[in-house]
Amino acid sequence: MTPSSYNNQPWRFIYAKRNTLHWDKLFNLLAEPNKVWSKEAALLVVVVSRKNFEHNEKYSITHQYDAGAAWENLALEASSRIMYQSRNMIDKVMIHRENPIVQCKLH
Which residue among 17, 18, 38, 73 has its CA within the 20 to 30 Å range from the CA of 58? Predict the structure, then answer.
């Protein structure tokens, strides 16, 4: 069970499977040292959260917590099925400059 924040689910999982159209968009967000090992990953996932509630556009002080809890539940499920590795490895300068997340389909 994940906090739903007024049943809003303010998180999104943006993912790309290796050898697909969106792989390069997410892969190029990685910091250079992480590209070495992650190039063999089957899947890359970026977790984002909406800062404001949809129902009133007021700032949500829990949006990061809610997204973190959703990610934790996804990671727990993944660990019960397959091996996974979680890292904070995005090049924050690159993501602000290139802004490829808005170009990727939200799931």
Answer: 73
Instruction: State how far the Cα of 61 lies from the Cα of 80, in Å rounded to an integer.
Output: 31
Q: Is the pLDDT of residue 75 over 70?
A: yes
DSSP 51: S
**Domain locations in the chain as residue ranges:** 11-103
Q: What is the mean pLDDT of residues 39-68?
A: 88
The pair of structure tokens assigned to 65 is 């917590």
- Calpha distance 66→78 (Å, rounded): 18
User: Which homologous superfamily is 11-103 in?
Assistant: NADH Oxidase (3.40.109.10)
